[in-house]
């Protein structure tokens, strides 16, 4: 099953382009991050089912995570759940395996510790809830950094 993850930097006016590229690359499942749209729900777009977790309607459009699943795999999707505007969980049964796919758009270093702690606490809770009877796949952008930050010296 060909899958991937993609930071789209807003998808409101890019849906046709996204679908076209997914079809060309024959992607079955993709997690999009930084969708910058409002609301939560599902829709059919071309050959794909689009499941989305976005910021609340009254907030400025930012963040957001969504999953595109090829319609051929629709019967494999057993459940999906919006956790928050940065986490979406999808349960699928594929080839006899029970899979939980968690799409994540984690905060970067510019966000405060409170925001990061809350998101990672939610992520940890969802991974634990998946249980040992399911295979867990974590996809998205964890916004990790490596190396040491240089401090300015005066």
Task: Please describe what this structure looks like.
The chain is α+β, with helices and mostly antiparallel strands. The protein is globular, with a radius of gyration of 16 Å. The longest helix has 18 residues, at 113-130. The protein contains 2 helices and 9 strands. The protein has a single domain (3-141), classed as 4-Layer Sandwich (Deoxyribonuclease I, Chain A). Helices cover 19% and strands 39% of the residues. It has a 5-stranded mixed beta sheet, with helices on one face.
What's the short version?
The protein has helices at 15-25, 113-130, and strands spanning 3-7, 29-33, 40-45, 48-53, 65-70, 77-84, 87-94, 97-105, 135-141. It is α+β, with helices and mostly antiparallel strands and 154 residues long.
Which terms would index this structure?
single chain, 154 residues, alpha+beta, Deoxyribonuclease I, Chain A, four-stranded mixed sheet, 19% helix, 39% strand, globular
């Amino acid at each position: 099953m060909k899958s991937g993850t993609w930071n789209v930097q807003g998808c409101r006016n890019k849906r046709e382009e996204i679908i076209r590229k997914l079809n060309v690359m024959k992607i079955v499942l993709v997690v999009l991050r930084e969708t910058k749209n409002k609301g939560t729900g599902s829709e059919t777009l071309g050959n794909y089912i689009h499941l989305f977790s976005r910021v609340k309607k009254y907030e400025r459009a930012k963040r957001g995570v969504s999953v595109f699943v090829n319609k051929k795999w629709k019967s494999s999707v057993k459940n999906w759940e919006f956790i928050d505007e940065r986490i979406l969980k999808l349960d699928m049964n594929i080839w006899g395996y029970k899979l939980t796919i968690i799409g994540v758009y984690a905060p970067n270093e510019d966000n405060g510790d409170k925001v990061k702690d809350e998101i990672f606490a939610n992520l940890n809770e969802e991974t634990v809830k998946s249980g040992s009877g399911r295979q867990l796949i974590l996809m998205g952008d964890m916004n990790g950094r490596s190396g040491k930050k240089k401090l300015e010296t005066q």
